[in-house]
Fold each of these.
Amino acid sequence: MRPLTAAFDRIVGLLSGIIPEGIALLLARVALAGVFWRSGRSKVVEGTWLEISDATRYLFAEEYRGVPLAPDLAAPLATGAEHLFPVLLVLGLATRASALALLGMTMVIQIFVFPEAWWSVHSIWTALCLILIVRGGGILSADAAVARMAARARMPA
């Protein structure tokens, strides 16, 4: 029994390291970014970067009218956020702040737009956001690179 528990402890030790954690956090960042990026791209005129489509304006005016912002403000804010924060997440730059912003968007969607979607969709988005808020972007992120450069800059010569 002892060799089995020792092997298990070694495996857990290897999987708990900074590199496996960094890979897992990278996957979480990319997965969450993909969801919001695709949503953002569906809100713009095809072939443009950020020109909001008439369909999006209609959705915010009619289907999403429960959102406590004017549709003329909510549509561009949502579209911009769904483009900016996914890019930051993929880069791992301002990871915690980006995940917090997307958590806020998720809660607005959950409460005001699709309250029936908690278990099917929003609980997963929330879990990904919370993991990134708590753990950060990991070793494979721009945040980690910036932290390393800042630590080097503070070191005495």
Note: The chain has a mean pLDDT of 96.
Amino acid sequence: MRTALTALLAFAAGVLLMVGLSSHRASSPPASSGQEQAAQGATAPAPASTAATTDDDDATADHWPQQAPSPEQVMYAQRGMVHKALAELGPRTPGRPNLYVVAFGADGGEDVFRNEAEYAAKMFPQRFGPDAHVVVLENNPGSLDRHPLASWSNLEETLDGLANLMKPDEDILLLYLTTHGDEDHNLLVDLDPLPLDQIGANDLSDILSKRPFKWKVVVVNACYSGGFVPSLQGPGTLVITAARSDRSSFGCGADSDITYFGHAWLVDGLNHTTDFMEAYRQASAEIAQWEAKDKLTPSEPQMSVGSGIAEQLALWRKHITPGPVVAFKPAVPATMLGHPGEAR
């Protein structure tokens, strides 16, 4: 009898404890940090019980690569991966401006963004020579062990590392972001089930303004990306966007291998000119032709040229001997080729 009573009391206490914990979790406020909690240096939480699974758990298991590290392992590996990527950059060429490129492919649900980020990593050094240094940050299930994630934290970590490698008052930072965008001018940063924060126009401006880079080229390839211009524009900065602040851009989706803008500016434009602004003008005309052919509402790419940046880019180009055209080859072949007019 005493044993049975003891067991009953223990069971009741356990139920009350679980109810209390559930209530506390439900009422706890969200973390105040503006970035995903990468938990660098923090104590790892105890693993959850695997005694039961839910439909969400099954969906995550189906989406996550079977041979990949667990989501928690991926998150904890990020700082080391960023430092490794920075350490693998070639040495800075002294005596002239160097170009440092960060390719940021942020939506892990579509290979098109990975394709663009990895093409940039190949094209810039092959086309523009050893003075062009590239770091790839990308969200894709197929490259978890090769590239750091395209996340808010990794972007800041990468920029901090580059600030130590570059001459911030001489070298040029080129940030190429490719993903989906929304009407409130936020960029989709996503790799399910990882808890990644989205990046808005003011967020990106704040991230860059805290770093010492005098010369910047910021390319935002997303829908409604013109909304990033007001907060990013200024002296020493060239801003290029794939669309107006109130317009969609096109060319993503499972059946696309590269976006309209990525094709027009990266592949066609920069393979024919070393001038980023001339590549923009060529790309805008080419995109307009594609959109007219497909009977799409024009995206109307935008450009803002801050004081001094054109001259600094011209100084960088003086030392370039352009390499041959760099062919585009998808990192992951798309189901269909061409320019499907799917809004982003």
Note: The domain at 80-317 is CATH 3.40.50.1460 (Rossmann fold).
